[in-house]
Amino acid sequence: MSYEFYYWPGIQGRGEFVRLALELAGADYIDVARCDGGMAAMQAIVDGDHAGALPYAPPFLKSEDLVIAHVANILLFLGDRHDLAPKNEAGRLWAHQLQLTVTDFVSEVHDTHHPIANVLYYEDQKDEAARKAENFLDIRVPKYLSYFERAVARNQTNSGYVIGSAPTYPDLSLFQLMAGLRYAFPNAMARIEPDFPRLSAMHDLVAALPHVAAYLESDRRIPFNEHGVFRHYPELDG
What we know:
The protein is α+β, with helices and mostly antiparallel strands. The chain contains 9 helices and 4 strands. It has a domain at 89-209: Up-down Bundle (Glutathione S-transferase Yfyf (Class Pi), Chain A, domain 2), CATH 1.20.1050.10. Helix 1 (15-25) links the parallel strand 1 and strand 2 (28-31). The protein is globular. The mean pLDDT is 97.
């Protein structure tokens, strides 16, 4: 089965959570907007020039006649199809719950550099961003990471993953969170991360998975940069 994946071509952003799942699954997919004419094809779907459900914005995934938008929704779909989530209802809901919490966290990461409005440049809201980032690093990051750390600790298999004995899509998303936070806030994370050894170990566990490791070394993995969700502005790295 081949998928068409749609997201902005120059950034990891929210789309990277989906790319990681596709890569771990070994799925056949096309990152459409990175191909010739791909941006126009993506805009056509946003404009409704297709038979499937109407997405508000990227990322979205096309699978035959299905058009699935929103990261957590896409991963719910892929998790079931590619054994990246538990088969029982309680496990599927737990994985989805974790992913929705990741979604909340990613929104707060974004707001550290755009606390007022997306349509304004970072330079137009630097003072507000500094205040937001200070609160984020002092309060919100430890609160979220504490929750995820406790979630991993509750996994009775002691596998190092958050659910069961094999990697699931929430593990990939937690890997991406840790990688992104390290890039955006290296000084702060050097201070904060030692309090969360299970998440650090999970990051390394996921990075070593053969399909993930190959992806991270490939040109399919777009480097972090100052256009995505995780941005490194030294003045915000308290």
